[in-house]
Amino acid sequence: MESNQTLVSEKETIQLNSDEREECGDNGNSESQTSSSSSSLVNGEEIMKAIQVVERDSMAIAHSYTCLFASLRSALSEVTSTSVDHMNCFGDAAGRVQECALDAATKGNRYINSCLRLNEEMKGIDNLSTQLKIIRRNVDALDSAVNRLVRFP
Fold it and tell me: Low complexity bias located where (predicted)?
């Protein structure tokens, strides 16, 4: 691209020089025409140099902006990719937590049902306990009676 700019600048310089020569009449006889021609030539060359500097600076700025936008695009892509990865991990973790919560709730319900069944069974235990106490007294009384009868002789 630099060579294209140089070619364009050289063509413009040649065109500018030929335009200046036409304005001056291209006869070169008078000294005023020569000084006017050389001063306009100097001004033209200075203008061309200034234009070339502006073009170079503009190209450098454009390149800088291009690099900046490429860098921003890359950073945004990386951040987006990282965010998607984090969202996927979050979704996986949330799914596992949900599975564990459902499993814990199921086991908790089983435990509660077992406790309720045991509680129902324990309600009948009081009667059984009373009956066992009565049977034990009867067995003790029977044992005492048998012991008295056996020791009697």
Answer: 30-40
